[in-house]
Specification:
The chain has 951 residues and is α+β, with helices and mostly antiparallel strands. The protein has a domain of 279 residues: Alpha/Beta hydrolase fold, catalytic domain (Rossmann fold), CATH 3.40.50. It is built from 16 helices and 55 strands. Strands 46-47-49-48-50-51-54-55 form an 8-stranded mixed β-sheet, sandwiched between helices. It has a 7-stranded antiparallel β-sheet with strand order 10-11-12-13-14-15-16, with no helix packed on it. Strands 1, 2, 3, 4 and 5 form a 5-stranded antiparallel β-sheet that branches. A hairpin with a 4-residue loop joins strand 24 and strand 25. Helix 9 packs across helix 10. It is globular and about 85 Å long. The protein starts with a helix and ends in a 17-residue tail after the last helix. 38% of the residues are buried. Keywords: Signal. It comes from Chryseolinea lacunae. This is S9 family peptidase.
């Protein structure tokens, strides 16, 4: 009978057999580090204006990728390898991009020590959407297309490599001609380089017609393609050095300013309608260290550009000049030209020898800004400029900004008669310990430069409404929105009497809670739309009508609504058009989209699923949208839909990682428990595929503040810079527990213990966690918590802690070298949450510092701390390592030389992930100890022997 059944099965139709049981389906395999090379990402996504084409790149984590052009009407796809810097033209007819050289070819040439100029160069690609054909132009340095119109591209060509003739190929001069030829030696031809400029090609895409200009240093299109503005050092024949305007309609070239080859022209600017031009020129041909840039201006119909502003302008303060670092800016209506100006910089005496220069930093107790911050801001400070404005009808120059009030924000795209200024300069001394620095705000009259103060000493920054009728701000101290009427000079509290909070309801920092923010203004500045935790409110800037909750159901249903700005140029909310809102359900963790009508404040649910949605981009001319969706088991591929997200219109366009089906992955679920402080908490539990509750699994606990809302975040197999890869570890049989942590001010370490330990206990009660093989892993703030936890309990088998703060006493007085900021603010007001100075509450600093309790540690600890860490000084890691070494505890420390807060270089990230995996596999799975743990890697073997071997 058994034999008969076997023969019958063999005789069955193949299609029927396949339906019942797939043939030759390989069992799924666990992820390994080799899988990194297979995984792709989609860093670029765009839809063209008429909604007929979607372009997206599919790139490996390391290597050559491609762009895919997806034709939505026909489903046809074209791909071009190594495409980057992609532009879809405004007329929806072309895609323009660069094609990069093959990465392996470039690497091989670099291995051969080839010079930069000998390496292969970029190619320009021009893809015609209708014909689906690609034109390629080799050796292109840079390119630009007009922003608002199609049909043109301008590109600079790389310098041609000189081929030097061989000695035997050179003609030998007659003896009698030698002297004569030496006397009449021809001038060497000029070369294309950064000093002289490069050949610029202007190409008309519709018919291929080209126009070439030599030795171009800089160029820019008018926004709507009226013309091309460029600066050249001249070609010694037909084109003199200077600035030129090429009219794209008449194909006529106009010399705006002719000069000399050593003159420098920069900050080329064209106004909205292409009728006016401004640029900055340095006409001094000497090497004088003190430069005197000048602003030139031209408009259609004038024969040449004219000098508009220079250092002699009477409106400028004494010894102020035109800034060479700020591009001029035309108002939208073209009536004003905003110009950056600055004091003449202090320059070094160039006659001094190096040994004659005194190089000393004088750190003063009353410096408004710490010297370390000044060093970090040095380049920006040297290039700082201050807005002034030229009223073009009268050529009258008015100063707007000043050293006292440097930051100016223009109103109504520069059309308004007022601007806005915020300054924190009077209060900067205290920002090294208090990050919520106070501010003064002013309305500035653009016609006279006169200032009217809006507020003083407020924890908030003002912004202007689109038509510049109002200034608005959120006062952190009052947790309320305010407005200021420019016309009446009246300040109005907008939300103080509303029963809900407009600042973070869950704030557990010893500082003012942050505002949930504003989404914008409705047309004509009629209403300001602001967020609370869940809903959107419409408030009258003069409070003549009561505030209205226009989404209504958010708080009741725990739905967080946020506006999706589909038009990046949108200046105000059009009440006649529906708004697309993202929605997130805090209870179910589902997310999706709703549609809101401002006509009747009606909400329509469009889509809510167990995914995370992002990157919503609309075609400019039609109601088509591209977006991504993801969850733990689904990669964020590209989707297209209409604005209603109807199933019939929604389509997945990309399949970046089909190989994912070959691998064991895992699942994720919400876990709930109560903290030791009786606070209800949530966390994420990642389980392996084919999870069996009757088995015992090793578990790693990872944490960083709150993560449970990220349940639908996809995790690709990639070398993460600082944390365990949840997909990798779940695929290899681990449980990963990610608990949320809430804090009590003054007790950050204890708070972590009170949240983590009962969460672990809850999971132990379920019976599938191997209580003898549980590890901890965290980085930065999570690294600190790991170091603290292992001083409080020996329950965990092993722990990895990256960029730890071991000693809060010494760290409090340290510097964040990335920014030059003092670390004091972090302990008094921010993440470290001690809420007091070292002298007010010294015991808090000691009790929360792992270093003082290192003798209690029995857990093997792997430390990661890099010597170029700009966030947490790496001496903190050294303190922890030295303490454990002195106490003879099992500890290792990884230091990736020259790397910052975490490994950045891909090879280093892979190395870290391998070592951390070997560390946990040894302690939690009983795998053999690798060589680097067993004997270390001596300095003489650094970079040679990785020590991965377990033999």
């Amino acid at each position: 009978m058994k034999k008969f059944l076997a023969l019958a099965m063999l005789a069955a139709p193949l299609s029927l057999f396949a339906q019942k049981k797939p043939v030759n389906v390989a069992p799924k395999k666990p992820l390994t580090f080799d899988a990194f090379a297979q995984w792709k990402e989609i860093p670029y996504k765009a839809i063209n204006p008429d909604g007929t084409l979607v372009a997206f790149t599919v790139n490996p984590q390391d290597g050559d990728g491609k762009v895919i052009f997806y034709h939505l009407k026909t489903n046809a796809q074209d791909s071009i390898k190594r495409a980057a810097e992609i532009n879809l033209t405004a007329d929806s007819k072309f895609a323009v991009f660069k094609i990069k050289p093959q990465q392996n070819v470039v690497k091989e040439l670099r291995r051969q020590k080839k010079k930069k100029e000998d390496l292969p160069k970029d190619t320009l690609g021009i893809y015609t959407i209708a014909s689906r054909k690609t034109e390629k132009v080799p050796d292109v340095k840079t390119y630009k297309v007009p922003e608002k119109v199609g049909g043109w591209v301008a590109y600079q060509l790389e310098a041609k490599k000189e081929v030097k003739p061989k000695p035997e190929d050179k003609p030998k001069p007659a003896v009698a001609d030698t002297v004569k030829k030496k006397e009449t030696k021809p001038k060497a031809p000029r070369k294309n380089n950064d000093t002289n400029g490069y050949t610029l090609v202007l190409k008309k895409l519709t018919d291929g017609k080209q126009t070439t200009f030599g030795f171009v240093k800089d160029f820019t299109f008018a926004k709507y393609g009226q013309g091309l503005l460029f600066a050249t050092t001249g070609n010694d024949s037909t084109l003199k050095p200077g600035v030129y305007w090429y009219d794209l309609q008449t194909e006529k070239l106009t010399a705006l300013l002719e000069g000399k080859s050593k003159h420098k022209f920069k900050n080329l600017t064209v106004n909205e309608d292409g009728t006016q031009v401004a640029f900055v020129a340095d006409l001094d041909t000497t090497k004088a260290p003190q430069r005197l840039p000048k602003l030139f201006y031209w408009k259609t119909g004038e024969p040449k550009a004219s000098l508009l502003v220079d250092e002699t302008a009477t409106a400028l303060p004494k010894k102020w000049i035109v800034s060479e670092h700020a591009a001029p800016l035309f108002s939208k209506d073209g009536s004003k030209l905003f110009v950056g100006v600055n004091p003449q910089p202090v320059v070094q005496d160039t006659t001094l020898l190096p040994e004659e220069i005194v190089s000393v930093e004088v750190w003063g107790a009353r410096d408004s800004v710490l010297y370390t911050q000044q060093n970090k801001q040095l380049d920006a400070k040297r290039k700082q400029s201050y807005w002034s404005v030229v009223h073009l009808a009268s050529k009258n120059l008015v100063m707007l900004g000043s050293k006292e009030i440097p930051a100016i924000v223009l109103g109504d795209e520069g059309n308004a008669d007022v601007a806005l200024a915020n300054t924190d300069l009077p209060y900067r001394w205290s920002d090294f310990y208090d990050p919520s620095t106070n501010t003064d705000a002013y309305v500035v009259d653009v016609n006279t430069g006169a200032r009217q103060q809006i507020f003083s000493n407020v924890k908030g920054n003002a912004s202007l409404s689109p038509k510049a009728r109002y200034a608005c701000w959120f006062n952190l101290a009052d947790t309320s929105w305010f407005s200021y009427s420019v016309a009446t000079q009246k300040t109005t509290s907008l939300t103080r009497n509303i029963a809900v909070r407009f600042a973070d309801e869950e704030n557990d920092l010893p500082d003012y809670p942050d505002a949930y923010g504003a989404l914008g203004w409705t047309a004509d500045d009629k209403a300001l739309l602001v967020y609370d935790r869940y809903d959107i409110w419409s408030v009258d800037p003069e409070n003549k009508t009561a505030p209205v909750n226009i989404t209504k159901i958010g708080r009741e249903q725990k739905l967080v609504f946020r506006y999706i700005r589909l038009d990046p140029e949108e200046r105000f909310i059009d009440p006649a058009k529906p708004l697309l809102l993202s929605a997130f359900n805090e209870t179910t963790k589902q997310s999706g989209y709703y549609k809101l009508s401002l006509k009747d404040n009606s909400l329509t649910r469009l889509l809510m699923t167990d995914h995370r949605y992002a990157v919503a981009t609309k075609a400019k001319q039609v109601d088509k949208i591209i977006f991504t969706r993801e969850n733990f088991r689904e990669f964020p591929d590209v989707w297209v839909s209409d604005l209603n997200f109807a199933p019939s219109s929604s389509k997945k366009l990309s399949d970046a990682n089909p190989q994912m089906k070959q691998y064991l992955w895992g699942t994720v679920e919400i876990v709930k428990w109560m903290s030791l402080d009786n606070v209800p908490l949530q966390g994420l539990l990642y389980k392996p595929d084919n999870f069996d509750a009757s088995k015992k699994y090793p578990m790693i606990v990872y944490y960083y503040e709150k993560n449970s809302d990220g349940i639908h975040q996809h995790v690709s197999p990639e070398p993460l810079r600082s944390s365990v890869n949840r997909a990798m570890y779940a695929s290899n049989g681990y449980l990963i527990f990610v608990p949320d942590i809430v804090y009590r001010v003054g007790y950050p370490g204890q708070s972590a213990y009170n949240c983590v330990m009962p969460g672990v206990t809850k999971l132990l009660s379920l019976g599938f966690v191997d209580e003898k093989n549980i590890g901890l892993q965290g980085h930065s703030w999570g690294g600190y918590q790991t170091a603290y936890l292992v001083t409080r309990t020996n329950f965990f088998k092993a722990a990895e802690a990256g960029a730890v703060v071991a000693d809060m006493v010494s760290a409090y007085g340290g510097i964040r070298w990335e920014t030059g900021l003092s670390r004091m603010f972090q302990y008094e007001h921010q993440q470290s949450r001690l809420g007091a100075t070292l002298w007010d509450k010294p015991l808090r600093y000691v009790e929360n510092s792992p270093i003082f309790f290192a003798d209690k540690i029995e857990t093997p600890l792997l430390l990661l701390h890099n010597d170029a860490d700009g966030h947490v000084p790496w001496y903190q890691g050294i303190e922890m390592y030295m303490a454990l070494r002195r106490l003879n505890k099992p500890a290792w420390m990884l230091n990736y030389n020259g790397e910052p807060h975490w490994p950045v270089k891909r090879e280093n990230r892979i190395d870290f992930q391998i070592r951390m995996s070997q560390f946990f596999d040894h302690y939690l799975k009983g795998a053999p100890m690798p060589e680097w743990m067993r004997r270390g890697i001596p300095a003489v073997e650094k970079g040679i022997n990785k020590g991965y071997s377990t033999k």
